[in-house]
Every structure is written in C-alpha cells, then in structure tokens.
Design brief:
The protein is mostly beta strands. The chain contains two helices and 19 strands. The chain has a six-stranded antiparallel β-sheet with strand order 1-6-2-3-4-5, with helices on one face.
Length: 257
C-alpha cells in the first residue's frame, strides 16, 4: 500500500531512504517512471523502462532537477467482482486515502415488532425489503436514472460489488462529507465494518441509511467511502479483581468547554 511521499530537488538527499527495502517509483512529469531496486539500504541503481541504468539517486536528482517519489511497500492486490458493468470502477480519491463508493440500487427495509400478551409474552420481529424502482429524470441538464425515498425510510444502498479483502484486514464504510447535505441521509451504524470473511460472489456491499427528509438518489452517484485497515490482533481477556488505575470519569465527565 502507498506509504509515503518524498520530494527531491537538485542534489538534496531523499528523506527516509535508509529504512526502505522495497521498490520506489520516481515520476518525472509526463515521462515514464523509474523503478529503483532498494534491496540494500542505500539506493544504488536505477532501471528505467528503456533499460538505461543510472548510477545513483544523486545522478537522478541532477538529471530530473525536481522529482516526486512515491514509496510503495507491499502493495495489496484486492479482487473485486462488479455486479453492474455500467457502474464506474473503484478508484482512490485524488487527495487522501479513501475510496468513494457509488449507488447501484436502493431498497427500503421495513421492520415490525410485536409483543404478545400473557405472563410470558411471545415476541416477534419481522423485516421486509422492497427495491425502489428507477425513474427517468433530468438533473443539471442531463438525463439520469433515479430513485425517490421518503422521510423516515430506512434504506439499504446496494454499492454494486463484492470484494475479497486481504487476509488480516477489514474495511470501514462511512458517509462522504456531503452525504447528509446532498441526500438528507445519515448512516446509523457508522462506521460500517466489513471483515475479510465477507468475500463470496453474493456478498455484495451495502450502505444502510436513514432518510431525514424526502429525497432522491441518482444511479452511479458517489454516496459513501471506505478504506481498509489491519484487524485487531488476537487477544486474551484476563479477568482480574481490580485494574488499579485512576478512574477517568464516565460520559460527559470532562465538560463542554
């Protein structure tokens, strides 16, 4: 995964090179990238696509004058199964390390609760899911396909893909900064967590949302975002009689000012 970004101007040494042991990609504007072999702590050779070798990093800096370096350590390959070929493919946003997710379809979920009578009442809880139909409309001068929803609706937004996360990682799905403003939706379980066992062909990703107002959503619009992180390590929970630490205080104990 992308680890860091470094800059080199003229003969200035590259920061952090001494503890890098993987490949570094040097970009020089519109030219092809150079791939550096850093099996040794000091980068001592460079091979460009045209098979030309350059002796060392300082020579590269002299030739390029100002170069941008992206350090890629253990880049993960993630398998993704798109359910709708008409949707845009996943890509990382230009700034930051989150990946935007888009609307493929939307369903309304209705849950009903019932508590019986008697000394020991019988409890029931049932849920129904109804997919909202797409309609044709004009948005900002373009013809679009959209669904409409009502205030109070509990929605499941189908994100249009299944994914095989790398072993030892899990994903976090959260709203985009504009989700509430543009759609009137909040994600009640935010952040949504997807572990790497959720990886079958039919394990499609969804975003649950609660509508705060009447609204509409257009097919393939960006609605939420995700990133992956390493999972919690395996842990043993040891019962003790006391923890022996000072009490911090409960909710809101630190005040508001």
């Amino acid at each position: 995964m992308l680890r860091d970004i470094y800059y080199c101007v003229g003969k200035q040494k590259l920061r952090g090179i001494s503890d890098m042991d993987d490949k570094i990609k040097f970009f020089k504007g519109f030219k092809e990238p150079y791939l550096f072999d850093t099996n040794n702590p000091i980068v001592d050779k460079c091979k460009s696509i045209n098979e030309v070798f350059i002796d060392n990093v300082n020579n590269v800096a002299n030739q390029l004058n100002h170069i941008k370096v992206e350090v890629c350590l253990n880049m993960e390959n993630i398998n993704i199964l798109y359910k709708n070929k008409e949707m845009s493919k996943l890509e990382k946003i230009e700034r930051g390390d989150w990946v935007d997710l888009r609307c493929n379809s939307v369903s309304v979920v209705t849950t009903r609760f019932a508590i019986g009578v008697g000394e020991i009442p019988i409890l029931t809880r049932t849920s129904e899911r109804r997919e909202l139909p797409f309609e044709t409309g004009i948005f900002e001068g373009e013809e679009v396909q959209f669904v409409r929803y009502d205030k109070g609706d509990y929605l499941l937004i189908n994100l249009g893909f299944a994914m095989e996360l790398p072993e030892g990682y899990e994903a976090y799905v959260i709203p985009r900064g504009s989700t509430l403003k543009n759609y009137g939706l909040i994600q009640p379980n935010s952040p949504g967590v997807v572990d790497n066992t959720f990886c079958g062909d039919d394990d499609v990703w969804f975003m649950p949302a609660l509508a705060q107002k009447d609204g509409f959503m257009i097919f393939n619009e960006r609605i939420c975002q995700f990133r992956i992180q390493k999972k919690m390590p395996e842990s043993n929970f040891n019962p003790v009689e006391e923890l022996g630490n000072e009490n911090r205080g409960s909710y809101s104990s630190t005040g508001t000012k």
